[in-house]
Amino acid sequence: MNGQFKLHRLLAIAAATMAVSTAHAAVSADEAKALGSTLTAIGAEKAGNKDGTIPAYTGGLTAAPAGYKAGDGVRPNPFAADKPRLQIDAKTMAAHADKLTEGTKALLQKYPSYRVDVYPTHRSVAFPKFVADNTAKNAVRAKTVNDGRSIEGAHAGFPFPIPKDGYEAMWNHLVRFNGQAYEAKYRNLSVDASGRATLATEGISVQEYPFWDATKTSADTFWRIKLTYTGPARRAGEALMLVDPLDIGAKDRRAWSYLPGQRRVKVAPDLSHDTPNPGTAGATTFDDTFIFNGSMERFDFKLIGKKEMLVPYNTYAAVYQAKQDELLKPNHLNPDLVRWELHRVWVVEAKLKDGKRHVYGKRTFYLDEDSWAALASDEYDARGQLYRTGFAYMAPSYDLPAPYTDMFGHYDLVSRVYSLTGFIAETGGLRHTKPLPDREWSADALAGAGIR
Question: Around 82, how many Cα atoms within 13 Å sit in the side-chain half-sphere?
Answer without folding.
Answer: 24
